[in-house]
């Protein structure tokens, strides 16, 4: 049903209002990524020329290119952001930043925005819609379940901040650089721990880690350094890989190991990599998996997210 208070987001005029809304709406549950994103929106909103340029291709600048706002009296009091990505040959939409001003909650605004977004996505001929919701947000989980969303995985992102020098330094004597002969084992482990549904939202392709000349050349052109390390224990191998770019705010760690040596791999490989990276690191794992080892080395849980999806007719 048409709602006159809901309109498409306009990157050239709405960024500051959106930043205000996100700051207010998530005041009790904002994490470091949220703080950075809000600050980024504010900076962009102050540069009118750049905001107008970004309007042509907002996703290039990590801005909300698609989505809707709920406006009342000229003020944005609700928002839903949409983005799309490719999974194989299928286009999928991701819903994010569903926010309502705390003073306006309980009026069905989030429901109206979600309904509008789903109608729009369906009109684009897309069959799947995904979203991520914090495990500690039962109100939002209930809302999405009423729309037919189901959880298909639950993941925790662990973080080691740059100043967290208290990460335990483990003996790295059994850690070496990856060899070409290690690749098939690493790839098999990687695909078990990091499903395609996860890596595609990161824009990450497991084959970018393959030890071959074209990847070396691609990394050189992109000014990227890729590192791969192996931990050997009693005939088994655990792996950690990461990419270093100029100006990145944090480094994603891709750690894999047989289940029996996963915790020991976390305890040894993460501090080993962290010491060489020298900036904030992130490690994404299935919820509860390796949790004690992450805590033991000083990582903190940034968030635990339920990944949900809905199939459209």
Automatic annotation (TrEMBL):
Residues 4-164 form the N-acetyltransferase domain. CDD domains: NAT_SF. PROSITE patterns: GNAT (PS51186). It comes from the Bacteria. GO terms for molecular function: acyltransferase activity, transferring groups other than amino-acyl groups. Keywords: Acyltransferase, Transferase. This is N-acetyltransferase domain-containing protein. It comes from Anaerolinea thermophila.
């Amino acid at each position: 049903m048409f709602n006159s208070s809901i309109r498409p987001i306009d990157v050239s005029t709405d960024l500051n209002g959106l930043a205000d809304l996100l700051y207010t709406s998530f005041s009790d549950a904002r994490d470091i990524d949220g703080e950075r994103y809000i600050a980024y929106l504010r900076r962009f909103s102050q540069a009118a020329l750049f905001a107008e340029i970004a309007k042509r291709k907002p996703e290039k600048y990590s801005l909300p290119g698609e989505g809707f706002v709920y406006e009342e009296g000229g003020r944005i009091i609700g928002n839903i952001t949409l983005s799309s990505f490719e999974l194989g040959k299928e286009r999928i939409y991701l819903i994010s930043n569903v926010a309502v001003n705390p003073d306006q909650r309980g009026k069905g605004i989030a429901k109206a925005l979600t309904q509008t977004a789903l109608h729009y996505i369906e009109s684009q001929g897309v069959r799947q819609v995904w979203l991520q919701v914090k495990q500690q947000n039962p109100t939002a989980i209930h809302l999405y379940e009423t729309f037919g969303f189901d959880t298909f995985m639950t993941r925790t992102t662990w973080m080691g901040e740059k100043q967290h020098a208290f990460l335990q330094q483990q003996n790295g004597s059994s850690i070496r650089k990856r060899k070409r002969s290690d690749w098939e084992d690493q790839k098999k482990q990687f695909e078990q721990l990091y499903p395609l549904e996860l890596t595609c939202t990161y824009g990450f392709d497991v084959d970018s880690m393959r030890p071959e000349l074209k990847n070396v050349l691609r990394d050189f052109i992109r000014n990227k350094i890729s590192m791969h390390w192996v931990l050997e224990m009693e005939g088994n191998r655990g792996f950690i890989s990461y990419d270093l770019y100029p100006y990145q705010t944090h480094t994603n760690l891709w750690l894999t190991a047989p289940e029996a040596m996963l915790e020991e791999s976390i305890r040894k490989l993460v501090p080993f990599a962290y010491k060489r990276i020298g900036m904030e690191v992130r490690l994404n794992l299935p919820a509860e998996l390796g949790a004690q080892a992450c805590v033991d080395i000083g990582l903190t849980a940034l968030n635990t997210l339920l990944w949900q999806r809905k199939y459209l007719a």
